[in-house]
Amino acid sequence: MTEIEQNSELVDPVVIAAFEGWNDAADAASATVDHLMSVWSARVVVEIDPEDYYDFQVNRPYTGTDERGMRRITWPTTRIAIASPPDLDRDVILVRGLEPNMRWRQFCAEILAAIEELGGSLVVTLGALLADTPHTRPIPVSGTSTEPDIVDRLKLEISSYEGPTGIVGVFQDACTQIDMPAVSYWAAVPHYVAQPPCPKATLALVTRLEELLGVAIPLHDLPEDARAWERGVNELAEEDEDVAEYVRALEETRDTTDLPEASGEAIAREFERYLKRRHDED
User: In this structure, are residues 205 and 34 in contact, taking their beta carbons and an 8 Å threshold?
Assistant: First the structure.
């Protein structure tokens, strides 16, 4: 681990983490952390030494030039940054990296050691998966947690998934082993448009983080990018009747399944979110 700079003590920091790879359909999760790093002017404070965790024939280093025009190699790795959002009464630790090729338990232990040293009190992992969901409807985001009180407060679930997992699942388990409270949000990306980026899924994850943190996160161009993405997929679907028919079938299934959600509680929750954003923007 390479420490980039010394830091003052952080205020009750929440950790938000995402990793490129198997857990990151259309790069939606890693793009969320990229967005947060940008709008919150995050500073990288720790780099994980990639030698122990990455196969450079799989995740190759990148060669380019720096701001002085000098040639340099950028190695694939995982970085930890800190931010102090102006409207949030706590600091944020952002973890952005790649799913490692080896030594996953050691990798998680090293990141958690850095998080504990920085005072992290809650870990939020982000993921994205391919699913049978139409691009014309809101992107579904499922939330789970290891903590029953968080499950109740945020109306999440205790995960019942059984099967292969990626670094997000392993990292979540590593948090449980050291009694670190953890939450995980997963966006469902339409599988027929799996090519990154998917700004609509990134926007959905940002919205769930707003609910968790109780603060409006600057969106910048993200809503317009999401609308442009949807328009582009609409145009592609219109050119292929089979795809268009498939999308209509997904829409019918989704609308039928979601009908019970059009409840007073769901409508009130959406209205409260709208009012909060309007208040924070005024």
Answer: no
Q: Which two tokens stand for residue 117?
A: 């040293």
Q: Contact 90/124 with Cβ under 8 angstroms?
A: no
CA angle at 197 for the pair 195 and 203, rounded to the nearest 5°: 130
Contacts of 229 (CB under 8 A, 6+ apart): 197, 198, 199, 200
What's the token pair of residue 114? 């850095």
Residue 45 belongs to what H/E stretch? strand 43-47
Q: How far apart are CA 237 and CA 79, in angstroms?
A: 38
3-class DSSP assignment, residue 64:
strand
Q: pLDDT tens digits for 117-165?
A: 999 999 999 999 999 999 999 999 999 987 888 888 888 877 777 888 9
Q: What angle do CA 204, 209, 215 make, to 5 degrees?
A: 120
Q: Exposed/middle/buried for 94, CB within 10 Å: 0-12, 13-18, 19+?
A: buried
pTM, two decimals, is: 0.87
